[in-house]
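Lab notebook, bench 4. The sequencing result for the construct came back, and we need a structural model before the next group meeting so we can plan mutations. Quick request posted to the team channel:

Model the 3D structure of this chain.
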Amino acid sequence: MLVSESVLGNVEDDADLRAAVEGRPQEEVERVVLDERERRRSRIRTTTDAGTEIGVVVEDERGLEPGDVLVNDDERIVLVEFADREALVVAFEGGDAAAMARAAELGHAIGNRHRDLAVRDGEVLIALEADGDRTVETVTAMVPEGTETRRERVDPTLFDGAGATDPDHDHGHAHDHGSDGHTHGPGTHDHAPGSGIRTLDGARPDEEGDG
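Done. Here's the predicted structure in token form:
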């Protein structure tokens, strides 16, 4: 079994590694595709897409990122990829304040159910877990009639919270305690209803547009 105790670099910002990957025959470029649980662990035992067993020790606080190179030897290069997450996309009509208010209300209600949330171009994304069908039913009953909803496979990093660096931490996770709107998001301590929902740049919907 291969063992990787450090990340050699990332092909997105290391030109030499990127060239090494591009110059290798495809059969020598292997990938480990990590799901949501695996990518947050500090120790991982998995198998590449070519069937090679590999153990990974994550020492960097930032954890693993797509494009990280774990192995670069005479036989192979091993790259990190993240498996897409299934999400329910809720598209509110228009981008006005009323639409965003409904998005905030949805964020508060779904955050109370411990679901990861993100906002993308006016759409609310809700990560779906094993009970995805029930979440879809709940959301469909909450949103105004005619609101577009659809399932989509998305980049899992959309749900990562700004400033969260612990690989074993549940990033981007909104949760609520009690009925007072007391919500904790990554790096925040808010008491406003709906404050658990965050846009992809870390701002809340009610903060957008402030000078």
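Residues 116 and 173 are 5 Å apart (CA to CA).
Will bring this to the meeting.
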